[in-house]
Design brief:
The structure holds two protein chains of two kinds.
Chain A (H helix, E strand, L loop, with lengths): L2 H9 L6 E8 L2 E8 L5 H14 L7 H8 L5 E4 L2 H9 L2 E6 L5 E5 L28 H11 L5 E8 L5 E8 L5 H12 L9 H8 L10 E3 L2 H9 L3 E5 L5 E4 L17 H30 L7 H11 L6 H21 L2 H21 L5 H14 L6 H36 L1 E2 L2 E2 L36
Helix pairs in contact in A: 5-8, 9-13, 9-14, 11-12, 11-13
Chain B lengths: L1 H14 L13 E10 L5 E12 L6 E12 L2 H9 L6 E2 L5 E5 H7 L1 H9 L8 E6 L2 H6 L8 H10 L12 H7 L6 E10 L6 E11 L2 E6 L1 H11 L6 E6 L2 E22 L2 E17 L8 H29 L6 H8 L12 E14 L8
Parallel strand pairs in B: 1-4, 1-5, 5-6, 6-7, 12-13
Antiparallel strand pairs in B: 1-2, 2-3, 7-8, 8-9, 10-11, 11-12
Helix pairs in contact in B: 8-9
The chains are: A alpha+beta, B alpha/beta.
Chain lengths: 466, 371
């Protein structure tokens, strides 16, 4: 056997799906090397093996095989064995010859894929329902279907020494600031992970600063990604992950919903405001409650003071501990519901919400008002699911501040929260935009959605801000 | 730098706790009313009405109850300290609504207690103060059907818009101001237990005149309303005039809104105090028929009402002018307008000129009343 084939065989020894197919032709032997688990075996049989066998007596050179015998759009020469190995591992078929040193590759990749489904993390009331899949090819096709424009650029990169993961950087030339494009490319190419399994491997490297807040956006919906790249942002798709990254990402976007553009403007804005109020409730309410019920009784109406005092009578723990404990219980419940199969998760939710809450009150472990508060806080946090975790952590921090010094403590904690999110940047853009940034910023889809004919707008002239 | 600022914040947060203290809401006894009395030996007798929450051992449920604590001390502070000896939790005064001085305590001198009421951080300046005519034991034992807590009942009573017509609603901060202005005269409502009804109740009846911290006399209910109107706190709300179409029957007018503009002129050792009232009123009740649509009748009603309003104010003013009691804050007004002129008792040289512009705005429902 050819020494080159032996070398590849040695490299891929121990792989039962590695196939070497020999075909006798008039000039000698043709070898096909491929991994049958990630290749289209029917295509190899019908379009490569069959074509070669049918022409086995008339073969003159490898050029003839490439151009006239194998009828495939993606077939070409490669020039090293390392390259050949990579091509085999990524689902291509390598064609080698005993009568020539040329090596051909033919794209025969076929991996079983999930069909396009409704994205479970971003359900919409109205609007497109299709979601990304794990296939980068399918995902790019979903975007191309929506943007029929030569300015749409889709640059592919390979990342991960051992995974050789395909990454696509997608943007609209002219809309996306050039400096942003070059910055993103520079940062992505500087990633030297051995493994790149999913989008967060890229996402973490694009975070400007460590924080519980994600300063990069994730979306499972092609229409959402398209809306963002039309606004001058950059989308990044990672092969094997249905979540696409969008940069820059602003704090206000946590309160946007993909269906905002599909719904009546006023209704969409009403729901957006509710999401903001929900965030405020989940972040501030427990801390304010603790501050008022432990330090500032005079700020509560008298009858409510009495109701609160009665509700808490007999609870053995201090209020702050009671609230933290109940919020911890809720997090346990949430984690349990999330990790278990959906059918069991529903049961767990019922058991948790009804039995745990009720018995906590009856056993004197918590007061009814605390249960109500924790339930309201947690429900409100779910209105902006992308920052659920971050807000939960900051809620706990504010609770600690409020329990240390009442309202002054609460205000100090809240100022720390504001200064923290104000200090964050997303690829150089202020995360807290438009709050605290200059008026020249043009991106108009802020707290309230503008009219559709004012969309899409662009972040293009924010370049000066960087 | 940011880390340093954060560390400084945290250190401040932990160390600069000052007078604040963590206290769970159920671990406090909330005071709703304080009654201050004095005995023959001038000891302070303190009665406090408290709210206490607890978990009942009988039915394992949370509940709240009214507690009354009494104590005695040489000073108010001593009495309060003494009271805490029998309290399961620290008494919290932040929810206290009213401070009631018995007539005896008011005559003994409110100034003997006011320092602590002002100095203590939990006792807020927005609490109402008033005088009680009667025995404090009777008041604290009184069972009012409308509200279990006397403090909350009085709080609601004083905030009731209609009650304001008869009451001199007075708060701690107002007293603290008034004792430094003019003749240091304050006027605050008096309450008493109304025993002449089927069910015992509390009623506001007149006001107490406090001069230099001591109650010197009682102002009658009808004077209290005129007094409120002259000082611009509240207008007289009801005017009773004879029906122009039947002089023997009454016509009741209800004041909807009033504006008061005040002007003071000091000339030739004489003070002219002008009070111009602009009043909108409506017909509340007519005992005998009246053709209210008739502009002539309306004009006549307006004239009669203006006269009656003026008469009520003038009578009250002249009464206190004679006594030399500056309950209308004339000295304070003089000092504001003429800071270099110091007149010992300006009410004695003051002439009140009342001008009333009454505008009738129909009736609350029916336009006329015909037989």
């Amino acid at each position: 056997m050819d020494k080159r084939i032996e070398m590849i065989q040695n490299q891929l020894s121990g792989n039962s799906d590695f196939i070497i197919r020999k075909i006798e032709v008039n000039l000698g032997r043709v070898y096909l090397l491929f991994l049958n688990t990630i290749c289209d075996n029917n295509f190899i049989s019908d379009s490569i093996i069959k074509s070669i066998i049918e022409n086995k007596d008339d073969i003159k050179d490898t050029e003839q095989i490439k151009d006239k015998i194998i009828t495939h759009t993606d077939i070409n020469y490669i020039y090293s064995l390392d390259e050949a190995l990579t091509y085999i591992l990524t689902g291509n078929t390598i064609i080698m010859f005993s009568f020539s040193k040329d090596i051909l590759y033919c794209s025969t990749r076929k991996i079983e894929e999930r069909s396009i489904e409704i994205p479970p993390s971003e359900t919409v009331i109205k609007g497109p329902r299709e979601g990304f899949t794990e296939s980068i090819k399918t995902n790019i096709s979903l975007i191309r279907r929506r943007v029929v424009n030569s300015s749409l650029k889709c640059e592919e990169l390979l990342l991960g020494e051992d995974t050789i993961t395909k990454i696509a950087i997608i943007y609209i030339e002219g809309n996306a600031p050039k400096s942003l494009v070059s910055q993103v490319k520079r940062r992505i190419t500087s990633i030297n992970h051995k493994y790149v399994q999913e989008s967060n491997y890229i996402g973490e490297c694009l975070q400007d600063k460590p924080s519980v807040f994600d300063t990069i956006g994730y979306t499972e919906k092609p229409d959402d990604l398209v809306a963002k790249i039309q606004g001058g942002k950059i989308g990044i798709i990672v092969d094997g992950d249905p979540f696409a990254i969008t940069v820059p990402f602003f704090f206000i976007e946590n309160f946007h919903s993909p269906s905002d553009h599909s719904l009546n403007r006023y209704i969409a804005n009403y729901f957006r405001l509710i999401r903001w109020v929900g965030m405020a409730i989940s972040l501030l309410l427990p801390a304010i409650y603790i501050a008022l019920t432990t330090y500032h009784f005079n700020l509560i109406p008298p009858l409510f003071v009495f109701r609160l005092a009665i509700a808490r009578a007999g609870v053995p723990f201090p209020i702050y501990l009671e609230i933290l404990l109940m919020m911890f219980f809720f997090q346990i419940l949430r984690e349990a519901s999330l990790r278990l199969p959906q059918s069991i998760a529903q049961t767990i939710s019922i058991v948790g919400a009804l039995i745990l809450g009720d018995t906590a009150v009856k056993s004197g472990l918590a007061s009814t008002i605390s249960i109500l508060l924790v339930a309201l806080t947690s429900l409100s946090a779910f209105l902006a699911p992308s920052i659920f975790g971050s807000i939960s952590i900051w809620t706990d921090i504010l609770i600690i501040f409020a329990s240390l010094l009442g309202l002054p403590g609460f205000f100090v904690g809240f100022l720390l929260f504001l200064s923290h999110i104000a200090s964050l940047t997303s690829c150089g853009y202020p995360y807290l935009y438009p709050i605290g940034t200059k008026d020249k910023v043009q991106y108009k889809d802020r707290i309230l959605r503008p009219k559709i004919n004012n969309l899409p707008d662009s972040i293009n002239n924010e370049d000066e801000m960087q | 730098m940011k880390k340093k600022i954060t560390i400084i914040f945290l250190i401040c947060l932990i160390t600069l706790t000052g007078c604040f203290g963590y206290r769970d809401i159920d671990k406090a006894l909330f005071c709703t009313a304080i009654i201050i009395d004095v005995d023959e030996n001038e000891n302070v007798l303190l009665y406090t009405e408290l709210f206490h929450s607890y978990r009942s051992k009988e039915d394992n449920s949370e509940t709240g109850t009214r507690i009354v604590l009494t104590s005695k001390g040489k000073t108010l502070f001593e009495a309060i300290r003494d009271q805490n000896k029998s309290a399961s939790y620290k008494i919290n005064y932040e929810q206290n609504k009213v401070i009631i001085f018995t007539k005896r305590a008011a005559e003994y001198g409110i100034d003997n207690f006011i320092d602590y009421l002002n100095r203590d951080q939990e006792l807020l300046l927005r609490q109402y103060i008033m005088i009680f005519e009667g025995s404090p034991e009777d008041l604290i034992k009184l069972k009012i059907k409308q509200e279990e807590y006397i403090g909350l009942f009085i709080y609601d009573l004083l905030r009731n818009e209609i009650t304001k017509d008869f009451a001199d609603v007075y708060q701690v901060f107002e007293y603290l101001n008034d004792r430094h202005f003019g003749q240091a005269i304050s006027v605050m409502s008096i309450i008493r237990i109304k025993e002449e009804t089927i069910q015992e109740d509390l009623i506001i009846e007149g006001s107490g005149i406090i001069k230099d911290g001591k109650m010197i006399e009682k102002m009658e209910g009808k004077d209290a309303a005129s007094h409120s109107a002259i000082v611009g706190k509240e207008s007289i709300k009801i005017i009773n005039i004879p029906n122009p179409m039947n002089k023997e029957s009454d016509l009741i007018l209800e004041m909807i809104d009033s504006n008061l503009s005040i002007n003071m002129i000091y000339k030739d050792n004489q003070i002219i105090l002008k009070k111009d009232f602009d009043i909108r009123a409506s017909l509340a009740e007519s005992q005998k028929p009246i053709i209210f649509e008739d502009p002539k009748i309306q004009k006549e009603v307006e004239k009669l009402a203006e006269k009656e309003f003026e008469k009520m104010c003038m009578e009250t003013f002249e009464k206190y002018k004679k006594k030399g009691l500056d309950v209308f804050r004339i000295k304070e007004m003089m000092l504001r307008k003429y800071p270099n002129i110091d007149i010992e008792n300006p009410i004695r040289i003051t002439d009140l000129k009342i001008s009333v512009n009454m505008k009738l705005e129909g009736s609350s429902d029916v336009i006329g009343f015909k037989k």
